[in-house]
Specification:
Elements: H1 7-21, H2 52-60, H3 64-81, H4 83-86, H5 125-161, H6 163-178, H7 181-190, H8 197-224, H9 227-234, H10 239-276, H11 288-294, H12 304-331
Helix pairs in contact: 2-12, 3-5, 3-12, 5-6, 5-8, 5-10, 6-8, 7-8, 8-10, 9-10, 10-11, 10-12, 11-12
Amino acid sequence: MPNPLNPKTRKQRIDDLAASTAGKGPAGGGVAVAERSVADAGHVEESAGVSLIASAWRRLRGNPVFLLGATISALFVLLAIFSPLLAPHDPTARLLIDQVRPQSNPIPGSQPGYPLGADSVGRDILSRLIVGSRQTLIVGVLATLFGFAGGLTLGTLSGAFGGWVDSLVMRLVDVMLSIPSLLLAVSIAALASKPSQWTVIIAIAVVQVPIFARLLRGSLLAQRSSDHVLAARALGVKRSAIVFRHMLPNALGPVIVQATLVLAGAIIDAAALSFLGVGNPDDRQPEWGQMLGAAQEYIYDHPALAVWPALCIIIVALGFTLMGESLREALDPKSRR
C-alpha cells in the first residue's frame, strides 16, 4: 500500500486529479478554468487612471440635483445674454400709460400682448423682467469676481507667508466677519455720494472678500505641509515659485466651487440693496431688486408686481446653490457619495 505521506504519492494524486478535470466545462459537471501560463502568475491587469475632474464629472452627470441647478443657471445666463432680442416690447416705453388711472386702475392687468400686465407708468412687466436679468447677472458676476480677487490676494498673503502677515490679515478678516454682511454692504453703499450700479457691486464685493480669504488660507495651509512642497523647498526652489506654481493652483479648487455658492448670495444681496433704495436709482435700466422695491407701494392691491421679480430671484439663486453644492460634494473626498 502506498504511503500517502510520500511526496511522490501526493504529486501523483494531484496530477491524476488535474487530468480528470481537464477539458471538463459546466456541461461535464466540472469547473471551467481559463488556461494560464506560469508567466501570467501574479500579473495584474493595468487600467487607465481617472483624473479628479473626470471622476467628479462622472458623478455629476448622473446627479439630478446638479442637472437641475445647471439647467436653471444655463437658462438664466442665456436669457441675460439674449434679453434684448427676447423681450417682446421696449422695457422703457410707456405703452399702456393711457390705461393707468391713479384712483380706479393704477396697474393695468394682463391682456393680449402683455401677459403679465404693466407697472404704474404703463411699462410691460414681462419685458422688464427679461431685460432685468442682464443687470442682475452683471451685478452678481462682477461682485463675485471682485470679491474673489480681493480674497485671493489676502488669502495668498496669509496662507503662503504665515507669521505676522497671517496674524494681521486674519484679524482684519475677523473684524469684517463680525459685522453682518447685509449691514456692512448697506453701510458701504451708503458712503457713495450718488447711488449707482457700481456702488452695489463694490459693496457686495467687499462683503465677499473675507469668505474667499479664509477659505483660500485654509487650503494653502494644507498645501504647505504636503510632500511636493517640502520637496521643492529641499531642492532650493524660490518661495514665490513654490507659492504660485505649486501651492496656489492646488488650492484654488474649493475656492472656485465656493464662488458658485457666493454668486447666488450676491444676486440676493444685490436685490436687497436695490430694494432698500441704495442701488441704481435709474429705473430705465430694470433690475429685479429695483422692481421689487417699486412694487411695495402696491403690495396689498396688486401683489403680482412683487411676486414675479421675487420668483425670478428665488429660482436663479436656487439654481446656483444646487449646482454649487453638487460641485462641492463631487470634489470633496470627505463628502462624496
